[in-house]
Amino acid sequence: MKIRKYFDPEMELMEREELEALQFHKLKLQMRRCYRNSGFYLEKFKKAGIKPEDIRSLSDVTHLPFVAKDELREEQQAHPHFGRFTVAPPDAWAELRPSPGTTGPPVNTIWSHEDVKNIARWTARTMWTFGVRPGDIIQNGFGYGIWVAGISIHYASRELGCFVIPVGSTKSERQIDYFINPGSTVLICTPTYALNIAEQLKLKRIPPGKIPLRIGCFGGEVGAEVPATRKKIEEGLGIEAYDCYGLTEIGPIIATECSHKAGIHWIEDHLLVEVIDPDTMNPCEPGELGVLVITHLTKEATPMIRFWTGDLARLDKKKCRCGRTHARSPGGIVGRLNDRINCGGIYLFPSQVEDVVRGIDHLSDEFSIELTTDPKSGEERCALIVECLKEKEIPKASSQLKERLRNAYQVTPDIRFVPSGTLKRPVFRAKRVVDKRKKVF
Q: Rounded to whole angstroms, what are the CA distances from 123 to 63, 77, 295, 413, 418?
């Protein structure tokens, strides 16, 4: 039987003008719902002097105020437990999906029964985009429980007619067992975890070519589109590696790469995606780096209108070589605005350091960036801590590291070498920056 190329060709190949007309129609409906049913949005829109009828074109969305995560926390504290941005009535609710709460109290978002159907369907489409097909054995290494990614992959696997192994982020040895029996063909997890599994595979002396794994998709953190990281994952697991992106407040797996690996494709029939200059707060020009701002077009229970993600990316609305017309973000997510490191007056992202470190053969995959305050001058210092696989190679590795950082990013941080195996091997997500700067109150 011939397998179709696109999951939903009518939607994925829609002409740009027609797609934007559909987005505008859905935006107007969403605005009316929020204005009518949400005290939170009613107050925000009135304060901004905006009514739903004032939105006369898609570009008018820039007149609407942003929604920040801290604002949602404050709203839920003032109006427990779900705040007033819950638009659908309780009898429509299906699931509670709070954020992990790593930077503060969790933000409670809700999926309605219709939201669950939409999320399962769009996640299936994104999985089809990077190559999943009926009959695949999907090893789901994303955590289950409250985190949205694991359960959405599970629902989508069923939608696609696949066999799913809900292993979650358990020990890497167990992951390897399932590569062999029943023989997973697709791995989905964080890039950090994929590298951890690849390292264990090597220690067990199992050649990647001896397992049936063929593709993997990796998200939950920056990394899968970092060239050196992608190369290590692909060589370590013997697969084609793809990037994906999602966040709790908006939805799991809302963008993935296609076979051309030319950026993550957005599901624009469900979302309106903007890239905003954080300095001017105006829309960026095509290809310019800015903060992702996302609006729900179809979310029923807890829709977000112009949600400020804090994640930095670019936007390209030109048709991809794969034929899909929905906008892409080439290079994926570069990092978070708050994760920028001031290194000698030049801003640097951990993902940029990652690409340099993992591109040097004498270094391990692990590294740490330490921020301190000079006790004498009070100046901020940035140090890069790396592992050299062989002590005798330190001079050569040091020279390569300094040269590549200087040539690529014009930075020369302090470099400290530690013995191989010293740095912690993260199982799930990596925390690269250690902030030891003296706090000023």
A: 30, 31, 17, 41, 42
414 conformational bin, left if phi > 0, alpha if psi -120 to 50, beta if neither? beta
CA distance 140 to 123: 13
Compute how many other C-beta atoms are within 10 angstroms of the C-beta atom of residue 277: 14
- How far is Cα 138 from Cα 162, in angstroms, rounded to an integer? 7
How many degrees, rounded to 5, is the angle at CA 267 between CA 329 and CA 112?
135
- What pTM did the predictor assign? 0.89
Burial class (CB in 10 A: 0-12, 13-18, 19+), 302: buried
For residue 81, cis peptide bond before it (omega within 30 degrees of 0):
yes
Angle at 220 between CA 83 and CA 79, to 5 degrees: 5
Q: Which domains does the chain have, with CATH numbers?
A: 1-337 (3.40.50.12780), 340-435 (3.30.300.30)
Q: Are 390 and 363 in contact (CB under 8 A)?
A: no
- How many C-beta neighbours within 10 Å does residue 389 have? 14
Which helix (H) or strand (E) element contains residue 256? Answer: strand 251-257
Please count the CA atoms within 13 angstroms of the CA of 332 that sit on its side-chain side: 27
Half-sphere exposure of 314 (CA within 13 A, CB side): 12
Please state, in angstroms and as integers, the Cα–Cα distance from residue 21 to each residue in 28, 159, 381, following that order: 11, 28, 50
271, β-bridge pairs: 296
**What is the rounded distance in angstroms from the CA atom of residue 255 to the CA atom of residue 241?**
15
Percent of the chain with pLDDT over 90: 73
**198-238 confidence digits (pLDDT tens):** 988 999 999 999 999 999 999 988 889 999 999 999 999 99
Quickly state the pLDDT bin for 365 (edges 50, 70, 90).
confident
Pick from 384, 371, 341, 365: nearest CA to 424: 365
* DSSP for 278-343, written as a single string: TTT-SBPPTT--EEEEEEESS--SS--SSEEEEEEE--B-SPPTTS--S-EETT---EEGGG-EEE
Mean pLDDT of the chain: 92
Residue 363 β-bridge partners: 388
Task: Please give the full DSSP string across 125-167, using - where no structure is assigned.
Answer: HHHHHTT--TT-EEEE-S--TT-HHHHHHHHHHHHHT-EEE--
The band of 356, judged by pLDDT with boundaries at 50, 70 and 90, is very high
Preceding omega of 182 cis (within 30 degrees of 0): yes
